Amino acid sequence: MLIFLIEKAKHLSNNWSPIISLQLDLISSIEQLFFFFAAFNIFGKSVETFTGLFIYFLLMLDKSYHISKNFRSKWGKKLLSWYSIHKRDLPWRKKENQNFYRIWISEVMLQQTQVKTVIPYYKKFLKKWPNLESFNKASLNEILQQWQGLGYYQRAKNLFLAKEYLKNNKLFLDPTSLKKIPGIGDYISCSIPAILNDYSCGVVDGNIKRVIKRSFDIDENRKDFNKLVGKIAEELTPKENNRDYCQSLMDLANIICKAKLPECSLCPIKDECRSFVNKIEFKKIKSRKKKYKYGVSFIVKFQEEFLIEQNKKKLLQGLYTFPMTDLLEKKKNQSKKNLFKSLIENWKVEKNLLFDHKDLCFVEHTFSHFYLKLLIVKIELSSKMKFRDLMWIKEKKFDVKPKSILVKKVRERI
Fold this sequence. Notes:
The chain is an alpha+beta fold. It folds into 3 domains: 2-61, no CATH class; 69-277, Orthogonal Bundle (Endonuclease III, domain 1); 291-413, Nucleoside Triphosphate Pyrophosphohydrolase, CATH 3.90.79. Helices cover 48% and strands 11% of the residues. The protein contains 18 helices and 6 strands. Strands 1, 2, 3, 4, 5 and 6 form a 6-stranded mixed beta sheet that branches. A hairpin with a 3-residue loop joins strand 4 and strand 5. It is globular and about 80 Å long. The model is unreliable at 1-6, 8-40, 42-47 and 55-64 (pLDDT under 50).
């Protein structure tokens, strides 16, 4: 009945748009009543007008989004039936990995990283530290060493901070308690207890958000988009078997309701999906054009030693690298040659390294949000100098330091 009323109100809105703007956004009760009676006076005794406005008025009074028991039942049963056949065989779903530590590590690794990329890192991580007790002994450098190449290195730092927190605080598997742990937000605080203890809470990550957005045809530009998605997710969540339910949504998002080219005809909940039923075409996701940035990395040598630094900036934070300038975009009327020249001179003045240098080569690297072109410059010193934020090191000792893929590329070229 509610769906019928909503559709009727939308129909009236479309037909009367030149006369009156029916917006299904929640406004104050006074405004609702004023709008209702004013419009009624304008249109007089028109039955259709009265009916339409009365429907709109009722909708405005109800400020919550309701999911019927029948709809929720069908939605859940179809997803779970599909999941029982099509669930993905993933290492963190194996019986021996059903504990807080191993689910936690998998969920952190899976943030903004594809499953196929995570799997080898996950296995390697557990081989190094099979349980929380062994992980508690890990240093930040050791964690970064295992993490190198996986990207988003703040996650590795958060793991270190989290295990330090857990050394001094008892672990409780509920969302409120889990959110106190560094690096754990709304999604992980809900997914861990749901998967381990069948805790009934609306698990929502970016993929599940996409499924709900499409299924209920929600405009992601509306101000309360995230709040509304979270409310719908909560109402759809079953009281029992949320363990399988939330993972069925994760798999549906990755196998069928993909960001690009979703396979709607194969979807188990297509009859419950408003986008499918109403034949709404999904907007093509335009890939954001990545910007180009430029920087200079310095190979400063004295005999068998060279300078390195531990990155303190958000990008590659905590990893060891050759000294590097800031990474900048080229200004509109600036040539690349002049940009590199400026970067080199400014860095040399800052470090008081006013010696001749030699351009060795360029290294190109792709980050998630920009392309980098890095000029590699070599400086040979005749005497050893001290620097506040730089350290001298030999090749063998540098081998065991945690490094990014970018630094590995530089080493291969020099």
